[in-house]
TrEMBL record:
Gene that this polypeptide is encoded by: Thyn1
PANTHER family to which the protein is assigned, alphabetical: THYMOCYTE NUCLEAR PROTEIN 1 (PTHR14087)
One cellular component (GO) term of this entry: nucleus
Purpose: Specifically binds 5-hydroxymethylcytosine (5hmC), suggesting that it acts as a specific reader of 5hmC.
Entry-linked InterPro entries: 5hmC_binding (IPR052181), EVE_domain (IPR002740), PUA-like_sf (IPR015947), THYN1-like_EVE (IPR047197)
Localization, UniProt: Nucleus
Principal location class: nucleus
Name used for this protein in its record: Thymocyte nuclear protein 1
Amino acid sequence: MPWPSRKRDKGAVADKKEPDAKIAKTEEETPDKEEEEKTTKPPAGSSKSGWKNWKKTKESDSGGEESKITYCHWLLKSEPESRLEKGVDVKFSIDDLKAQPNQTTFWDGVRNYQARNFLRAMKLGQQAFFYHSNCKEPGIVGIVKIVKEAYPDHTQFDQKDPHYDSSSRKENPKWSMVDVQFVRMTKRFIPLSEIKAHHLAHKADGGPLKNMMLFTRQRLSIQPLTQEEFDFVLSLEEEKPH
């Protein structure tokens, strides 16, 4: 029996006939509770210093050349706390993934067109952050990798599944999923609040997180990351939390 479906992009089903851009805009206007904009400013100097130190290290490693801006990594949101959706508990934490056979499972239930397109763009072996969402302390807890590229999401045809889509046809499925495998836990929990502090500082000084989709497309449960975004966030696991 498969595990409960992952975190969904609310609102996508109701807007099936709308273009992807409009769906994304609608989601942005109603952000998830843990990603609402807060007035708290980043700790003075801490984020900026971290960005400068990281940049200096990267320039040393690459001879000062900037990497191309391409999306080659991902961030996958999932809910670690129980929540019923049409009578089904959609909880799925990184510990649940680790408990799966071969620590591998399918990433089903995505019902937003933009997020689905990101799923379809994933390549075998690419890595993604596992992000605990819609919980008391949202943030990054581990790393997974793509072990099977996009294929039809079976839950769209299951009338008992809370994300059944009666308009989808087996000869032309609307929704896709991928298989992911646990790689490792991050060396420490990297909270949303800390990532946001860096994002706000980088918006001012041109750091790698200035356009991070976690803050520009908050509602999307599947988000792409550039190499620089992935590397910078990963470097945070080596730092002591502020």
